[in-house]
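Deliverable D5.2: sample structural annotation.
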Amino acid sequence: MTEILPRLFLGSAQDAASLDFISNNSITHVLNVAREVPKCAHVKNYAHIPADDSWYQDLIQYFPWANKYISESLENGGNILVHCAAGISRSATIVIAYIMTDYNMSMSDAYNYVKSRRAIVSPNLHFVGQLVQHEK
């Protein structure tokens, strides 16, 4: 688990399922970007994007909704965890898209920023293409 921006965390399904992690970081909102749904009953505000880490997955369709969910969570004083299975590809793509939109950053700058905070970030090339499309 990594704090990317103040109160915005990027992590794994294991982080989402950990009561200690959720409690220690005062997580109030979770956005799961995976088909699998970990046990996360200890978080009241839970959202789910059913996505696979594949060349066929269209994540760009979820960018506006995910950006709104993240923004509203933070504006309401919450701490949000965005996760997928490992916190490397799907959830990283959603966080990069959020930063591009809310901070008016280029895809390259947003990617480099997130990568500097969480070195294991590596969206699949199809998701990178969707981020480039989102930038346009």
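Annotation notes: Residues 63-75 form the longest helix (13 residues). The chain has a mean pLDDT of 92.
The annotation will be released with the project's public dataset once the embargo ends.
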